[in-house]
Amino acid sequence: MQAIEPPAGAVVMSGLNFNPYFPGTGIAMARVLYDGLVDYEDGTPATTSQMAKDVVEFLNWAAEPEMDERKKMGWKVMAIGLTLFGLSVWVKRYKWSTIKTRKLVYNPPMSKADLNPSSPRPEVRMESTKRQS
What we know:
It is found in: Mitochondrion inner membrane. With about 130 residues, this protein is mostly helical.
């Protein structure tokens, strides 16, 4: 196992190993991952960063084994939500358009003479002539 050499000016006490990510840069635990530790079947180079990535992916899977199922369920929820949103937009635009474009006009109440000017009743005709003068 090969230890990382500390850079110039970094002081590491005896019995400790250099770790640039640890506060004080000295840690008692020896380096666990180093180049060439494993052989990948597909020929991937066994670098320290590749093995660290593999360890992180495994720990993520071990912590949340149902993550793939949740992602599939999330896509289904998004598809249904998008469909319902589209349907609600359609209902709003086409079903409510007659209500939203309705024109309301106020017609004041009309008198009896205005309703029937050729009425034979004299009181109705008199009211209509009073209004015209």
